[in-house]
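Try it yourself: sequence plus glutathione, in.
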Amino acid sequence: MSLMFFGHPFASYCQKALIALYENGTPFAFRILDKSDPSTFNEFAALWPLKRFPLLVDEGHVIAEATIIIEYLGLRHPGPVRLIPDDPEALEVRFVDRFFDNYIQTPQSKIVTDALRNARERDVKGVADARAMLDTAYGWLEKRMANRTWAVGDRFSLADCSAAPALFYADWSHPIAESFPNVRAYRRRLNARASFARAIEEARPYRSFFPLGAPDRD
Ligand SMILES: N[C@@H](CCC(=O)N[C@@H](CS)C(=O)NCC(=O)O)C(=O)O
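Structure, out:
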């Protein structure tokens, strides 16, 4: 098997890349990063000193960053599901991918990482700003999703790979209010997509890891 994937099933950026692998049934070896297995972690850290996952290794080529992994898979291991369309829609797909990473994933992870700090190191203002950012982002997305099934065009894309774990965890950290019905419906569609439903199931055993306390629902 040529592809090796370092990551963890509960990690949102890993789920983003896993969706792409699952969409096309791409075979890979999942190297789970677990504190109980330091040798795998050390191997990973030697390949990518920034120690952020996921990381893909393909016959010696090291590919970091979930978006770039998905781009790479489309170029080097394409399957029937093309997650990045041809121009001009490709630019919009990449833009909406950036929206989910920068304005949903980033503030959501700020809330989560702050909860892991001890009380004296908490960043109250930073968390309040993150929550405000999420409300603004939900508002923008609410309008965008008024007449759409998927984030861009009429096909599932890189933008939806990004959206699925971002909205999954954001709703746990900062619930998507009922005043955003289109966002809530989009999140339900994403959760039901077979590739992401699989990622949700694989992550289920790790829910106790969620520092704010995982709700008793998906
Ligand atoms: N920009 C990176 C972010 C990756 C990232 O932050 N991954 C998290 C897991 S979801 C991580 O590595 N966390 C470990 C840490 O922060 O030490 C990407 O898009 O892949």
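One thing you can check immediately is this: The longest strand covers residues 3-7.
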